[in-house]
Specification:
Elements (H helix, E strand, L loop, with lengths): L4 H24 L10 H15 L14 H39 L5 E3 L6 E3 H16 L2 H15 L9 H10 L1 H31 L5 H19 L4 H19 L5
Antiparallel strand pairs: 1-2
Helix pairs in contact: 1-2, 1-3, 3-4, 3-7, 3-8, 3-9, 5-9, 7-8
C-alpha cells in the first residue's frame, strides 16, 4: 500500500487548521477556558468539535502545512478563535466587575475568593454573580449557540491566509465598552440605594457626632446591600440575555469578510 505524502498533508490540513480555531475558542471562552477545566478535557472537546464540524465546512486551501503560507493560516485561525472567545468572556467579566462594585460599596470588598473563571481573587459578590450567570448561560443554551456561531464562521470566513481585518480588530476593541456599560447597568440599582444610605449616615454624623458611624453603618449597609441584591435578582436574566444577544450578533459580524 503506497502512502502519498501529499495526501497525508492534505488530510492534516483539512483537520488541523480548523482545530486551531476551535481550540483557541475553547481555551479563551468562559466555562471551558477556566483553570478548573483540565487541559485534557479542553483538548478532547476541541478534537470532538473538529471531527463534527470539518465534514460540513468548505475544504481547506491547498497549501504547505509547514511553509510560510501554512504558518500565516495557522496564526489567523488562532487569532479568530481567541477574538471570539475574548468577546464572550467580556460578557461574564461585566458581571464580575458589577459584583466588585457592589461588594466594595456594601463593605464586602475584604471578603474575597479565588474565581475559577478568571483565576484571580475577586469579592464573594462577584463569585455569586459568576456562578449564577454560568448556570443561566447553560440554561439558555448559550453553549449550543456558541458552537453554531463557530460552525457558521467557517462558512463566512473560511480557513485561509485571509483572517480578521483591521476594521474587525478595532470593532473588537470597541466592543470592550460593553464590559463597562453592562457592569454599570447591573450594579446601578444597588449602588444608588447604597449611595442614599451613605448620604443618610453623613447627615446623621453631622447631627450627632458622638455616634460611631462605623459600628452602626457597616451592619446596615451590609444588610441593605444583600436586600437590594435579592430584590434585583430577577433583572439579571434580562441583562444577561441582552448581552448574549449583542455578543452573538457581534461575533457573526466579526467573521464577515471585509468588502
Amino acid at each position: 500500500m503506497a502512502i502519498n505524502p501529499a495526501d497525508i498533508s492534505a488530510f492534516l490540513s483539512a483537520y488541523l487548521w480548523p482545530f486551531f480555531r476551535i481550540a483557541a475558542l475553547v481555551g479563551a471562552a468562559p466555562l471551558l477556558g477556566t483553570q478548573s477545566v483540565p487541559m485534557r478535557v479542553r483538548i478532547s472537546l476541541a478534537l470532538a468539535l473538529t471531527a463534527v464540524i470539518v465534514p460540513v465546512i468548505p475544504a481547506a486551501p491547498a497549501a504547505d502545512l509547514f511553509g510560510a503560507t501554512g504558518v500565516v493560516i495557522t496564526v489567523q485561525q488562532v487569532l479568530i478563535g481567541l477574538a471570539m472567545g475574548f468577546s464572550l468572556q467580556l460578557v461574564f467579566g461585566a458581571f464580575v466587575f458589577a459584583g466588585q462594585l457592589i461588594g466594595t460599596t456594601m463593605g464586602l470588598g475584604f471578603a474575597s475568593l479565588n474565581d475559577p473563571v478568571t483565576g484571580v481573587v475577586v469579592p464573594t459578590v462577584s463569585q455569586f454573580y459568576t456562578v449564577m450567570v454560568t448556570l443561566l448561560f447553560l440554561a439558555l443554551n448559550g453553549h449550543l449557540v456558541l458552537i453554531e456561531v463557530l460552525a457558521d464562521s467557517f462558512h463566512s470566513l473560511p480557513v485561509g491566509a485571509r483572517g480578521l481585518s483591521a476594521t474587525g480588530l478595532w470593532e473588537l476593541v470597541g466592543w470592550a465598552s460593553h464590559f463597562f456599560s453592562g457592569a454599570v447597568l447591573i450594579a446601578l440599582p444597588a449602588l444608588a440605594a447604597l449611595l442614599v444610605v451613605n448620604i443618610g449616615f453623613g447627615v446623621v454624623t453631622r447631627a450627632a457626632p458622638q455616634i460611631n458611624v462605623f459600628a452602626v453603618g457597616f451592619p446596615v449597609t451590609l444588610m441593605l446591600g444583600l436586600l437590594v441584591m435579592w430584590i434585583t435578582l430577577p433583572s439579571v436574566l434580562p441583562q444577561l440575555n441582552a448581552l448574549l444577544e449583542d455578543v452573538f450578533v457581534f461575533l457573526r459580524h466579526l467573521v464577515q469578510p471585509e468588502i
